[in-house]
Amino acid sequence: MTSTQAETDRSHLGTLSVLAWIGDPAEGHDIPYLLAYTLGDGPQGREAGERAARGLLEEIGLPIGDVVMDGTRNPAGFPVQIVLADNQVALTLPGLNATCTAPDEWVAAANESGQAYFLFATRAWPEAVPGQPVDPKTLQEFAGDEAVLTGSAHCVLAVRRLQ
User: Fold this and answer.
1) Contact, 91 vs 80, CB < 8 A?
2) Which of 16, 138, 139, 147 has the fewest CB atoms within 10 Å of its CB?
3) Other C-beta atoms within 10 Å of 36: how many?
4) What pLDDT score does 23 carry?
5) How far apart are CA 93 and CA 47, in angstroms?
6) Interatomic CA distance for residues 101 and 162, integer angstroms
């Protein structure tokens, strides 16, 4: 008898949210960042959601840790896509979609560089509720946390635009 690894149950993720931000351009930090995270509100709880996030990343071939994948070389064949339309960013992964509104400076930086730095955090962030502003200090505490960074998948993605 043989067994295969079952596809990750995406319902365990709970709410998938996306947040776009840019560093301080005056300090030379004009990189557009896009962060995907779950709220930890899945039916099996926060820990199951975090396991599901890890399983999803493994399933689609994105390593967790300090490896930065380059999704700009073959954007059409990469498992993560972002599309920008005005200030709306659409994130697509196999079996998942999420959107967010990007600030004007994010759009300008993404248009200039044609790419964005993407992180998919496996740690849930229930405090960052979709539709509610996240102050810079709270964002820095989460996105800059060593455990969050080492527990995330990292990619550079091409920013595609609707034609």
Assistant:
1) yes
2) 147
3) 21
4) 78
5) 21
6) 15
